[in-house]
Write a structure and sequence with these properties.
Elements (H helix, E strand, L loop, with lengths): L1 H29 L12 H16 L8 E4 L11 E4 L4 E4 L4 H16 L2 H10 L16 H14 L7 H13 L8
């Protein structure tokens, strides 16, 4: 009888653990995405931000939490279409092209989720001389290929039968391997 009671108590403890685990997973799945902060988003800009955040969620990525500012001139982005400022935790967007916001959000996601070791390995695996040395051209920096990879995968449904898409998906899986990848 004592053994029976002990097993019953063990099941109750196990049952409580499973219940808490399931409840936690449900809460994580139904939690709203982090939203981007800005002091002055137009309705159109807010819609762009919401859509970009949904794209990240669709691929199983936690949307980045960052302040986003839209500008009608490129000076705010140092002449680029977009610019991520990690020390300020801010993205400046200076283009109407939809991929620019997603690309800059990818930079934020990488900063938040990709380890230094994975960054180095990513650059090496793609035969790039550096992760983010600005003495090298944009195309030679791992950080830019990583952001481009995430941008492409979250924005498009890629056919894995195409060699370029297989490469993008392999790089995406490499960057997100600590997560459960949707591919």
């Amino acid at each position: 009888m004592g053994t029976s009671l002990k097993c019953q108590q063990g099941l109750n403890t196990w049952g409580r653990f499973v219940f808490v685990l399931i409840a936690s997973l449900i809460a994580l799945q139904s939690a709203p995405a982090p939203t981007a902060a800005s002091t002055r988003l137009s309705d159109s800009e807010a819609q762009q931000v919401d859509e970009a955040m949904r794209l990240f969620q669709r691929r199983g990525l936690q949307p980045p939490a960052v302040t986003i500012e839209f500008h009608d001139h490129t000076e705010a982005c140092q002449g680029h279409p977009g610019y991520f400022r990690p020390r300020l935790d801010r993205i400046d967007i200076c283009s109407d092209l939809p991929f620019v916001l997603v690309h800059e959000l990818a930079h934020v996601w990488i900063e938040e989720h990709v380890s230094v070791a994975t960054r180095r390995a990513f650059a090496t695996r793609n035969d790039l001389p550096t992760w983010n040395d600005h003495d090298y051209d944009w195309k030679e920096r791992g950080v830019e290929l990583a952001a481009f990879t995430i941008q492409q995968v979250v924005m498009r449904d890629l056919d894995p039968r195409r060699p370029r898409n297989r490469e993008l998906l392999a790089n995406f899986n490499f960057l997100t391997r600590a997560l459960s990848s949707p591919f």
